[in-house]
Design a protein that fits this description.
This protein has helices spanning 54-59, 83-92, 148-157, 169-177, 183-189; strands at residues 4-5, 12-16, 28-29, 32-33, 37-40, 44-45, 61-62, 67-75, 102-107, 110-126, 132-143, 159-162, 203-206. It is α+β, with helices and mostly antiparallel strands and 213 residues long. The strands form four sheets. Strands 3-2-9-10-11-8-5 form a seven-stranded antiparallel sheet. Strands 1-4 form a two-stranded antiparallel sheet. Strands 6-7 form a two-stranded antiparallel sheet. This is LysM peptidoglycan-binding domain-containing protein.
Length: 213
């Protein structure tokens, strides 16, 4: 079964805040809509297991550990660009922080809020010089329930900076953390998939220093 080109019900992945609100950044669109996805429903069990009375059982469980598994397809064959820098790196960057951000994966009737647990990229088409132009990215995400408390805690622990002319994510990371290579932390926290699109005057959220990896 072949993948379907995106159309009126384009699939996409985007970073959202803890309440599920979209950041004013670009989303990552799918080149082709998925052919399928799977949802695994379950609950977590604490150390008490299932023994004891109903109250103990209730305390030993968490209400929802639903996980989504889906394969995303990205393609830069027509443009000739590198599919890694244009799409895949934006997805893998979401795993490069100590506390991965909440993401929305949407397609048709699917609107899943979750935190990425794993990303597995397979490159299937290349230019003559070896540059990959097509990728199949298998993503697993665990369901996230929007929480105003979590959002407030995150906001109080983070700082804000305004981008000025000449700023880059690397220079902002160096000023914030003393480490220019930590730019992916800032990119992931703000839903930035392409650092070259950074615009003067934009407000960025800077996660606390303890959250960069």
């Amino acid at each position: 079964m072949s993948a379907s080109p995106v159309g009126t019900d384009d699939g996409y992945l985007e970073v959202v805040d803890a309440r599920g609100n979209t950041f004013p950044r670009e989303r990552i669109p799918f080149a082709f809509n998925p052919t399928e996805y799977s949802l695994n429903y379950g609950h977590g069990l604490g150390g008490q297991g299932l023994r004891g009375n109903q109250e103990q059982v209730s305390q030993a469980t968490t209400p929802d550990t639903t996980t989504l598994s889906v394969t995303l397809l990205f393609d830069t064959y027509e443009s000739g660009g590198d599919v890694r820098s244009e799409y895949v790196d934006g997805v893998t960057a979401l795993l490069s922080v100590a506390t991965p951000p909440v993401c929305r994966i949407a397609w048709g009737g699917l609107n899943f809020l979750g935190v990425l647990q794993s990303v597995d990229a397979t490159y299937t088409m290349f230019r003559r010089d070896g540059t990959p132009v097509r990728a199949r990215v298998a993503v697993t995400a665990r369901k996230h329930e929007p929480s105003t408390d979590e959002d407030a805690a995150t906001a109080s622990a983070s700082t804000q900076v305004t981008v000025t002319a000449g700023d880059t994510l690397s220079s902002i990371a160096e000023a914030a953390y003393g480490d220019p290579t930590a730019w992916r932390v800032i990119a992931a926290a703000n839903g930035i998939t392409n650092p070259r699109t950074l615009q003067s005057g934009a407000d960025l959220t800077i996660p606390p220093a303890g959250r960069q990896s």
